[in-house]
């Protein structure tokens, strides 16, 4: 079992007015509760909390600079690379993590190597290419050994996990993610009753839990919300770990379009977040995620399929429990990334149509509402 490094702080030295300062983009605002921000930022964070018709709130992380929550992680992880004098950064990702790492490395003046799949989504591939990262499309099973050689021989800093027995991730990753909890707390003016989080390896899940836990350590809150991990039903390593009483598990993964959170192996931090918050791990099907994504589109938010897992988990949880909602407080679903990041997005163009009024009018009559 591989356990990740945990970061602690002198909470008694945190400025008393930190949570009373004006809202601003950029993680600099939270510097007293973060590792050193040695690399410049891109205005990450301070994303909107959007209320749906039934009172559920959506924390829309697609509004970050590279359209996903991974910008928070990479601001602190690339800072670690910069502060340690690394000659570059290396990441294994065919999605949001690779796009964000390439952006923040470019901003810091560092080269970036991305181990990616040849079938990465078009928008992600465009990000990585635009930032000049080296794209390495080797078979997945070869990545850990090759990445270690990149680290050892080129002096690059790893900003993603290359452990094999369990996922550990970069130790600073959840430190960036915990700012999601700070912002939710400030926007609501209270701790929500529950937070539903799209979950792959569990780093975002742990970060959100840690952020709320720190609010209790600072005396700003008297509890943490229940955290619900929302995994694809095609896998579910965290749900399996909790069900079997293990710190982490490896499971077979079936076909799913939710590539961003389709993981065979879990991590210890996800188990901690669920157990300490009194929450649970939920599994959702592609159909449930598609329905949740359609619901968000109807509210003006277009997210990738993986990103809709939080809302899908909430809807499935309520259906299973028979409850209309959480009775004692607001509920938040985290939406992690833009619909541009889906694997199918960008692969087809608008079909041509006849330039006559009947065709145009027929298209308008087909619109809902």
From TrEMBL:
Q: Which UniProt keywords apply?
A: Lyase, Pyridoxal phosphate
* GO molecular function ontology, one term from the record: threonine deaminase activity
Give a GO biological-process term: L-threonine catabolic process
Q: Which residues form the Tryptophan synthase beta chain-like PALP domain?
A: 42-336
Cofactor names: pyridoxal 5'-phosphate
From what organism does this protein derive? Streptomyces sparsogenes DSM 40356
**Which named protein is this?**
Threonine synthase
* Name of a matching Pfam family: PALP
